[in-house]
Amino acid sequence: MADSTCLVLIETSGNQRYVFDTNKRRENVGASELIRRVGGPWLADARRAVGMTEANATLIAASGKVLVLAPDPDVGRALVRHVTLRALREAPGLDVAGIVGEPFDLAVDVLSEQVMDVHARFQQARALRPGPDERFLRLPIVAECRTSGLPAMTIVDESHGRDPASVGPRSLPSAAKFAAAAQGLDRLAAAAGTRRDAMQETLRYLEERAEWVAVVHADGNGLGRMFFDLAAWSDTQAPDGASRRERNDRYADDLRRFSDAVDRCTRWAFRQALGTVARAAAADADGQPPQTPIAAVLPLVLGGDDLTVVCDGDIALPLTIAYLDAFERYPDASHTDVDDAAAATLISSVASALTGSARLAASAGVAIVKRHYPFSFAYDLAEALTHSAKEIKRRVPDAPCSALDFHVLYDSTAADLARIRAGLTRMEPAADGVAGMDTMSRLVAHPYVVTPLDRLGLTHASAWVRRHHWTRTEARVAALRATTTGDAEGEVLALPRGQLHGLRSALFVGRSVAEARYAALRHRYPEGAVAVAALGGDDGLLFWREDDGVHETGLLSALDALDFLPASAPDDREDA
């Protein structure tokens, strides 16, 4: 590779909107496949077309993102032209842009600084471009696409001769997604370790029969900062007296390997999580033919430190918990695959040097909605829940700690998390009526810590972490399901459902009313005393007081999770 070179950055934008702008699961799969092709076959074809044969020229080739060292700006521009024209022809509606950085000398200049510069230039250039919607302007008389609302250009038949109602007009983006779905299903099946026909059945189940469907979005904590600081770590690995060219080559190789290692971590964690919920589902079936596909999951985005899946609502929370746990365990796990073992060692080395811990962590948002609820809104809710879960970085700043936030959407209004959470926060009057002494109450105790306490360490397992640990939610769910021996009817619920519904309603009346009902439950059902106690905090009350003065309760979250958690937690996960 010559010393004179330039960086080429090609990246997609609005990926989640492109994937989730329709409720057609087949088109969701096709959209995710088209995004993957940017850094896959389209990049490979473009490199061959411009004569770039050096294998180490590509620094990052993730789903929707490409960073390449080109020999000169003309070759870089040709590379961008080939990829973006391919996207225009084969993935209409996908926002793909590229930029060619200024030429620099690998023997003199610092490669990591050039990487930051090309990213900054890309953000500026992208802000000046019109969006892809400008390509699909409406005429006064035009047929409307059945799934996207864009102007239609063709007729798509997805009935296979069975249902004439499935034949209808489609826009150019919808038709492209539909056409890419077959190859996308093959890729999803490979990622899930299953067969194409099984993935096809999962797609049909989620689209036609599932009562509740979940969108799960997970994102690594602090990975952006680790990539930013990777240059400093890489520099420490270079031998004393190494030239600038040698240090740049070392950084390019470390960036390539670390990007691949994080990608492997995400994929491995997903496979581990999928295996956990599949085994649990098979055990629940107890030899009987399952009524739903075992582990009905569509991994639409799976790469880098990002995970976005659509799955059956019944397995969304166990799947997410298992994924976050596996994501943390990857550096310490025993890997039979040589490449995974090398990737785990690299992650451990980099993370230890940059953060003081050999582990990674992630945050996840889980939006559980009815099957026909608009997926674009469901993803927006999942993304907002992920941002809420990332509050854990402020609560536990000195150790990798994973967290999740979730919401079960029972109404059909637009899923705006800020509006939802505002409705779950109340101003409570002071008990003695003293003006200015009012307090706030929150009916959810988010985010929920997932990292086991023994893994987190006693130093970081603060009182806040213990109060918000996911195992407390699991304990409350177990209490809601607890049974006792009845007089003549055998096992009965220790806490009758009618009483719990009354307690739930009291939460929305006020904290004092809810506490009074909670106290009445403890006296009325002494045989369920253990279950009643598990619903509250450590001081015997339903609400506890946080450091900011706000009172919180975990009961509402447990009631929402009741129908979406298995009867017993998967035994694969380490105890908290």
Whole-Å distance between the termini? 51 Å
What is the CATH architecture descriptor of the largest domain?
Answer: 2-Layer Sandwich
Strand order of the largest sheet: 9-10-8-11-12-15
How many strand segments?
Answer: 19
Q: Provide the structure class.
A: alpha+beta
Helix content: 40-55%
What CATH calls the topology of the largest domain is Alpha-Beta Plaits
CATH superfamily of the largest domain: Reverse transcriptase/Diguanylate cyclase domain
Task: Give the mean pLDDT.
Answer: 87
Shape: globular
What about the largest sheet?
A: 6 strands, mixed
Uncertain residue ranges: 432-437, 570-576
DSSP summary: helix tally? 21
What CATH first level of the largest domain would be assigned? Alpha Beta
- Number of discrete domains: 3
How large is the share of residues in beta strands? 15-25%
As a whole number of angstroms, the C-alpha radius of gyration is 26 Å
Describe this structure in words.
- The chain has helices at residues 15-20, 25-38, 41-50, 73-90, 111-127, 172-192, 196-208, 223-237, 244-285, 313-329, 338-355, 375-389, 392-395, 417-423, 453-456, 463-467, 470-481, 497-507, 511-524, 529-535, 555-561; strands spanning 4-13, 58-62, 65-70, 95-100, 104-105, 152-157, 167-171, 212-220, 297-303, 306-312, 362-370, 403-408, 425-428, 439-442, 448-449, 483-485, 491-493, 544-545, 551-552.
- Mean pLDDT is 87; it is low at 432-437 and 570-576.
- Strand 9 (297-303) and strand 10 form a beta hairpin.
- With 576 residues, it is an alpha+beta fold.
